[in-house]
Amino acid sequence: MEFLTFYDKVFQYFSKKVPTREDALDLTQGVFEKVVANLPTVKKVNNVSHWIFKVSKNHLIDYYRRKSIQSKFTTSDFHQSADDTEFQNEMIKCQDHYMNQLDDETKYLLIESEIKGKSQKALAEEFGVSYSTIRSKIQRGRTKIRSIFLEKCYLEYDSAGRVTCCVDKDPEKKSC
Question: Is the pLDDT of residue 86 over 90?
Fold first, then answer.
């Protein structure tokens, strides 16, 4: 079948993304098991190459998620909710670590407005600038911290859009 011509490309993709050749082979095999299991779907896909690499990308994310979860969490951790104090404490540790990557002013504005609950109008008065300037700076800070989290972590959300799981993309790290 046509999809077998992608085997080497998928293997090369995984070889660059995982530490060992064996892991790359296992992941490649897993992808093609999914492809074979979904042959009726594959035959209906217009761009088989795109579909296979989308499956590969998702399979890689699952691999790192499983690997990270196995090394970091116990089975009881899978039942945490966003309101769970332990989960919130872990998120605060990650947040603190990533906040230190921001410039001092942005960090201060985010801590005061988002964590301490200080109004943006009060911050504008404190800095002697307009409300819209502070609002823009806080929004840019939110965007920066969000992009740092998305770059460094896999995030899962509940139906309300709250983060329920945060797993570092680097499987060697014990915490964010």
Answer: no
Cα 20 to Cα 67: distance, rounded to the nearest angstrom: 14
Task: Write the burial class of residue 13 (CB in 10 Å: 0-12 exposed, 13-18 middle, 19+ buried).
Answer: buried
DSSP designation for 172 = T
The per-residue pLDDT for range 39-68, each reduced to its tens digit, is 777 667 777 778 888 888 888 888 877 765
Question: Angle, nearest 10°, between helix axes 85-99 and 131-152?
Answer: 110
Tokens of 121: 């109008």
Measured distance CA(35)–CA(49) in Å, rounded: 11
Q: How many CA atoms lie within 13 A of 107 on its CB side?
A: 10
Mind listing the domains of the chain with CATH numbers?
2-72 (1.10.1740), 75-168 (1.10.10.10)
Q: Which residues of 153-175 are buried (b: 16+ CB within 10 A; e: fewer)?
A: bbeeeeeeeebbbbbbeebeeee
